[in-house]
Specification:
CATH topology: Rossmann fold
Low-confidence stretches: none
CATH superfamily: Dehydroquinase, class II
Bound molecules: ligand CA2
Structural class: alpha/beta
CATH architecture: 3-Layer(aba) Sandwich
Shape: globular
Radius of gyration: 14 Å
Strand content: 15-25%
Number of strands: 5
């Protein structure tokens, strides 16, 4: 059986749909999970979809992915802009990584313009809302097919 793609979500993404719909849209994280699982099914991919508010737990999941996953799709939330630890874990995973953001981080406060995660990412999708997760899965499917994974 092919290994799943880990879809990892960072701090506060559990609040989606409840607050700040103007910035992040009306989809809840459960809606995004359902969309991602549907798209993955179309692409013949399995996904493991998780969210944590804890930096350490996310790093543990990235380390776990090294042996268990075929690739990582990550929206690291605010840790995107702060976490060298998460970057180190992503680089150590040696897996294809796609970074996703619901909002356009380049159109917001300047501290959101820099991403540590991007240094480990094959590609970045931002500003397209929940659709970005589907697009990222399509891109991941292409990368994995090319690699023969
Ligand atoms: O646009 C994205 O997907 C972000 O990763 C979302 C993060 C933010 O810190 C990044 O700069 C960009 C925030 C996660 C969601 O935070 C919420 C806060 C209040 C209400 C709903 C969501």
């Amino acid at each position: 059986m092919a290994k799943p793609v880990y879809v990892l979500n960072g701090p506060n993404l559990n609040l989606l749909g409840v607050r700040e719909p103007a910035v992040y849209g009306r989809d809840t994280l459960d809606d995004i999970k359902a969309m991602a699982e549907r798209k993955a099914g179309e692409l013949n991919l399995a996904v493991v979809f998780r969210q944590s508010n804890s930096e350490g737990e996310l790093i543990d999941w990235v380390q776990e992915a090294r042996g268990q996953a075929s690739g990582i799709l990550i929206n690291a939330g605010g840790l995107t802009h702060t976490s060298v630890g998460l970057l180190d874990a992503l680089q150590a995973s040696e897996l294809p990584v796609i970074e996703v953001h619901l909002s356009n981080i380049f159109r917001r406060e300047s501290f959101r313009n820099h991403s540590y995660v991007s240094l480990a990412a094959t590609g970045v999708i931002c500003g397209l809302g929940a659709k970005g997760y589907e697009l990222a899965l399509e891109a991941m499917a292409g990368i994995l097919t090319k690699r023969g994974a």
